[in-house]
């Protein structure tokens, strides 16, 4: 027998309803998809589990999937990004939930288990925790799972490792790799939301400071671009020579982490890897350096090393921990080293997530529609979905673009011309 929702307080629902109403107004793509799903009922009789950061934008995605006929369960992909009022509003509107803000590691994993025990047919995941658990303790549920959609770079790294070793037993749509996802969500969404969170949390000026961006993927590009716009001097650290060259041509300094560590005022990690800032780097940082992570898991800034070096640790204001080192220097870690833009902020702008969640919703419908043809493995977002979301966005903006003439189409397709 399924357990009822496990949430903080159902009485918070009215405040959550206000948040959901606000984001809906600025998500025209999802609004159009909701109308389509309501009419076509692509998920009729299906169980869907959504494992994402549980805030208002995600909440509206869950409502859109429910409008398509699904029985929806939501569970948190990060315990510090859960907004209890939004979760309460979802439960009040017929969506099951297992999540609350500040869940312990044990509670977080128990919530994931409870979500899987609903026996889902379709999954939306963020970071790969749910799909990984499915392939571990809950393998017996795999035959009923049509497939999953993965939101993040970190999740796809894990899933491609599973695929390479022959472990992955379901098809997974690489939503993160869609052009309309990484060109906009990863770059502009991460760029704005990271700095919104850092400046709101610290109330410090960015202009004139040295910002070290660790990793120059699409998220790193966005963080560096916004830091430059705020007046910072930007230093990039990289392991990829091509990305390092790109950063140089974009106008940024490129240094190894050991040299950058001595120069930075703000450090933002966006690599998807572990311990990219560690003991030897903390040892040369300036007094007052700010440490923030914008990668999915809280492993990029080595908290064990930081605690080992510290003679005292205390919370000096919400989402700011002070680590006093033996020589008296103080380093400040934001949001426990978790995803700063969600654990210490409101996440990506609404319009940006409208693009990403439009792809999620349509990719989930694609999985269900093509369930007989798809095979296990990581698969790309179909071009028609990527292009379709782009066109929906242009329509929402009231913008038009050109189309090829028949002569132009022929010219592009005839090698002999």
Automatic annotation (TrEMBL):
Top-rank taxon: Bacteria
Reaction(s) this enzyme catalyzes, per UniProt: S-adenosyl-L-homocysteine + H2O = L-homocysteine + adenosine
UniProt pathway: Amino-acid biosynthesis; L-homocysteine biosynthesis; L-homocysteine from S-adenosyl-L-homocysteine: step 1/1
Classification via SMART domains: AdoHcyase (SM00996), AdoHcyase_NAD (SM00997)
Any one annotated GO CC term: cytosol
Entry's localization field: Cytoplasm
One Pfam family linked to the record: AdoHcyase
Positions bound to substrate: 126, 151, 181, 185
Keywords recorded for this protein, A-Z: Cytoplasm, Hydrolase, NAD, One-carbon metabolism
Cofactor, free-text remark: Binds 1 NAD(+) per subunit.
Needed cofactors: NAD(+)
Principal subcellular localisation of the protein: cytoplasm
Domain S-adenosyl-L-homocysteine hydrolase NAD binding residue range list: 186-347
Enzyme Commission number(s) of this protein: 3.13.2.1
InterPro entries: Adenosylhomocyst_ase-like_sf (IPR042172), Adenosylhomocysteinase-like (IPR000043), Ado_hCys_hydrolase_NAD-bd (IPR015878), NAD(P)-bd_dom_sf (IPR036291), S-Ado-L-homoCys_hydrolase_CS (IPR020082)
Binding-site residues, NAD(+): 152-154, 186, 215-222, 238, 273, 294-296, 341, 348
Function: May play a key role in the regulation of the intracellular concentration of adenosylhomocysteine.
HAMAP family in UniProt: AdoHcyase (MF_00563)
Similarity remark: Belongs to the adenosylhomocysteinase family.
Full protein name: Adenosylhomocysteinase
